[in-house]
Hints:
Helix content of chain A: over 70%
Largest sheet of chain A: none
Order of helices and strands of chain A: HHHHHHHHHHHHHH
Mean pLDDT of chain B: 88
CATH architecture of the largest domain in chain B: Orthogonal Bundle
Helix content of chain B: over 70%
Low-confidence stretches of chain B: 261-266, 318-322
CATH class of the largest domain in chain B: Mainly Alpha
Radius of gyration of chain A: 24 Å
Radius of gyration of chain B: 27 Å
Shape of chain A: globular
CATH architecture of chain A: Orthogonal Bundle
Number of strands of chain B: 2
Structural class of chain B: mainly alpha
Largest sheet of chain B: 2 strands, antiparallel
CATH class of chain A: Mainly Alpha
Order of helices and strands of chain B: HEEHHHHHHHHHHHH
Strand content of chain A: under 5%
Number of strands of chain A: 0
Oligomer: heterodimer
Number of helices of chain B: 13
CATH topology of chain A: MetI-like fold
Number of domains of chain B: 2
Shape of chain B: flat
Distance between the termini of chain B: 47 Å
Strand order of the largest sheet of chain B: 1-2
Amino acid sequence: xxxxxxxxxxxxxxxxxxxxxxxxxxxxxxxxxxxxxxxxxxxxxxxxxxxxxxxxxxxxxxxxxxxxxxxxxxxxxxxxxxxxxxxxxxxxxxxxxxxxxxxxxxxxxxxxxxxxxxxxxxxxxxxxxxxxxxxxxxxxxxxxxxxxxxxxxxxxxxxxxxxxxxxxxxxxxxxxxxxxxxxxxxxxxxxxxxxxxxxxxxxxxxxxxxxxxxxxxxxxxxxxxxxxxxxxxxxxxxxxxxxxxxxxxxxxxxxxxxxxxxxxxxxxxxxxxxxx
Amino acid sequence: xxxxxxxxxxxxxxxxxxxxxxxxxxxxxxxxxxxxxxxxxxxxxxxxxxxxxxxxxxxxxxxxxxxxxxxxxxxxxxxxxxxxxxxxxxxxxxxxxxxxxxxxxxxxxxxxxxxxxxxxxxxxxxxxxxxxxxxxxxxxxxxxxxxxxxxxxxxxxxxxxxxxxxxxxxxxxxxxxxxxxxxxxxxxxxxxxxxxxxxxxxxxxxxxxxxxxxxxxxxxxxxxxxxxxxxxxxxxxxxxxxxxxxxxxxxxxxxxxxxxxxxxxxxxxxxxxxxxxxxxxxxxxxxxxxxxxxxxxxxxxxxxxxxxxxxxxxxxxxxxxx
Lengths: 276, 322
């Protein structure tokens, strides 16, 4: 019986470790190719690790004539920061209003929000583009930042979360004479950091990794984001492979670091709000 | 007495009214921005796109001439549009259950070990932070590169001594599907594994203990009669989310199979598998035919919403408490 169990857990771990290795291969490939010479990458026999680390690939990347990585990084940073800030403010307030403020049309408004949840942004990207183009927002930062800011899913999760927020805390504040805004900013927000971090991170990854919307709205080169730059890089006639993979490394690193740091908030968030 | 009562009532009523008015104002301060945003970027676009689909709009996003149903008729005459619909249905039917099973499998595996659980969870979860574009770079340029220097080709050589395979350009058998399916699996399974893990941890231990008393060993039986039924709600949500994501596929198809040329006959390997969003992108942004693009976009959005709602109904999505 006992040996049977050890045997079982041996195979369990063998399977898990095997799968973990498979899941880690893509990072290894990015790191390896980013630090090699083109010749080493193109070698018939797989070279496990660069014989000499090629930091000059980083210089090549930022000097590449086809792929303006510097512009891409700057734009992605601006878009992500402002979009996430806007998303958190707009959707947390909407979630709170829908969860806690009594209003006779609240149900109708909630229905409107729910309806938008049924229409994924990508499914109407052409339509949204048509309106955004009429507004003159093509190839502008506001065109990249603002439309995806109204992230319905985020509002929905905030509402779910605030429904369970302890009422007595708010009541105490109300006795002290605070209005809805005061209660929200001084009592509710400081006591909800976990959900803000979780939805902020999800929003950040979504903004940074987004491809379709930046592709259609950021048409001029100076409004390209990291993903658009990498996509263009990839389809170039002659590709500087080490620089391309260095670009992938630079593009993924910020998200990996942030993800590592706040992973537990996301896991918690999935558990407590029952993101389903 | 009666007079007193009525003044009290009016005062109370006025106060109540005042409070209601203040609440109404607060409500709009809180919810108004989101509603305005959804109006501008969801509801108005749907209506505007629908109107535009009855107009000629080439090289301009503004309607130039009313053409009735022409855009729709042309759309249905274009075999590429129909093919894209068939392709995405077949693709969804395949990828949704596979992703579901793999995510659930990973969750069960991770949940069943205690040592190193954090490491395994993180390893499987972290691809969520990677973009489809970056994953496409790895998959197309190295992992499944058709040259002998590709990673998969090297493995084939070491293990079987086999010749290099042109993964993306091989149509018979259609090996490019291996590339497209594995990239999505790698990117997505971690997130759904986390959702399943949350579901698994909600199942009370006492149920398994009771089953053990009844002589059920932990294994297939407990999974079949305890775990899986209790994951019902989680499973429904995961299926729904996976399906919605699958029908919107764009990024990896565009980046791995290529965007095609600047003309309507998008060349290269794109013809192998062109999902509806790639087709729409070609019509609207490469051909600059916004009228027809709007017609196609309306049909596809309508289909996605219809399927979402139907699937929700069938699977009992509405039963869940919002």
